Amino acid sequence: MLKTLDLNPVMVIDIETVPQYASYDDVPPNLQDLWEQKTQYQRKPEQTPESFYDNAGIFAEFGKIVCISLGIFYTQNKTQHLRIKSISNTNELELLTAFADLLKMQLPTLMFCAHNGKEFDYPYLCRRLLVNGIEIPGQLQIAGKKPWEVNHVDTMELWKFGDYKNYTSLNLLAAILNVPTPKDDIDGSMVRQVYYEEKNLPRIVTYCQKDVITTAQVLLKFKGMEIIQPENITIVT
């Protein structure tokens, strides 16, 4: 399983997103109308556009990125290590500018790895980069490329084994592969509350970093390798 995949150019990535506005009442009227149209098939009959607005963060047109966590593999003394770095900011333009600048320093052959990345993280990043007027880094561009030329790995896609109806959460996949995961004090559904009500961005960063670590460990399982021990995981600022 992925035996030939070289971990050196792999960057594990996870993003955390929130609605662009703290509440539905803050959304401009024209965007409220467009929100109602966008979500008409996602909402249950009893849900109003206003009550559904807590979910706006998952839509790139109505959400924004507040944290990007990145993980890089490296070997030291014949032991596998993982280095984690996060970019977080309440100002999305500054966050994405820093992210794009970081990618400029990476090789064009950089390979991304994320869980459900092809359906969420990668396209969301590209859309928000475009909205903010930032050139999409070459490592994220897929236009005109053949499938085998796209350096995007998705651990959920790997688990599908061609079954496109299947959805498996990162937590479930980690559990069945015996990947230990730290106990989280929040989950994805709480990120909006932590950001807007608690105003605790560092708490979101910690949550995002844990997902990067878990995704990296799951990738190692797909390669038939031992997981990385906690003492060999470094978080840098």
UniProtKB/TrEMBL annotation:
What InterPro entries does this protein map onto?
3'-5'_exonuclease_PolB-like, RNaseH-like_sf, RNaseH_sf
Q: Where is the Predicted 3'-5' exonuclease PolB-like domain?
A: 62-225
List, in alphabetical order, the Gene Ontology terms for molecular function in this entry. Answer: exonuclease activity
Query: Which Pfam families did the record assign?
Result: DNA_pol_B_exo2
Q: Which UniProt keywords apply?
A: Exonuclease, Hydrolase, Nuclease
Enzyme Commission number(s) of this protein: 3.1.-.-
Name of the protein in its database record: 3'-5' exonuclease
- Which organism does this sequence originate in? Pedobacter lithocola
